[in-house]
Amino acid sequence: MRFRLTPRETSFYDMFAASADNIVTGSKLLMELLGADTSARAEIAERMRAAEHAGDDATHAIFHQLNSSFITPFDREDIYALAGSLDDIMDFMEEAVDLVVLYQVEELPKGVEQQIEVLARAAELTAEAMPNLRTMTNLTEYWIEVNRLENQADQIHRKLLAQLFNGKYDAIEVLKLKQIVDVLEEAADAFEHVANTVETIAVKES
């Protein structure tokens, strides 16, 4: 790690950790959605919406701190990228839940639970990794595993698309379900963007 002669603004670390913890909350709501009957989904969507708003607040706090700080813990563009990618994850998860409710989906296709399990694991890893930005230690295994999970998510997504287009569903249902599984795939991609940004920061700081 480079030796620095200037002090650094350290509140960013706490804000990134809080943002990642909020993503864990979102992933748990996704898991809850899987086991809920249709009558309970609207209430879960409301809680997810509140979590997404909390994520927005966390992102705005980071940007505000960045704009008011002369010295930052690492490059400004990396702080923007990391905060933005964390925010994207919550946006995609909230969108997926909202679509399930708005489209009045009776039953999600088999395989969606695997998508959500991957997201939940990636959320846990991300929350565990954020505090380590302070010391830039124990991060390599994090980004390697998140990249592996994203590859797994890709495979699950392709199998889900094949299932949707096998003739079992009518055309309108295919459109609805495809949009939901696509958004969940975008959430997996956003986790990888976070991990890649962390890797970039760690390389610069080494």
TrEMBL record:
<dbReference type="InterPro" id="IPR018445">
    <property type="entry name" value="Put_Phosphate_transp_reg"/>
</dbReference>
<dbReference type="Pfam" id="PF01865">
    <property type="entry name" value="PhoU_div"/>
</dbReference>
<comment type="similarity">
    <text>Belongs to the UPF0111 family.</text>
</comment>
<protein>
    <submittedName>
        <fullName>Phosphate transport regulator</fullName>
    </submittedName>
</protein>
<dbReference type="InterPro" id="IPR052912">
    <property type="entry name" value="UPF0111_domain"/>
</dbReference>
<dbReference type="InterPro" id="IPR038078">
    <property type="entry name" value="PhoU-like_sf"/>
</dbReference>
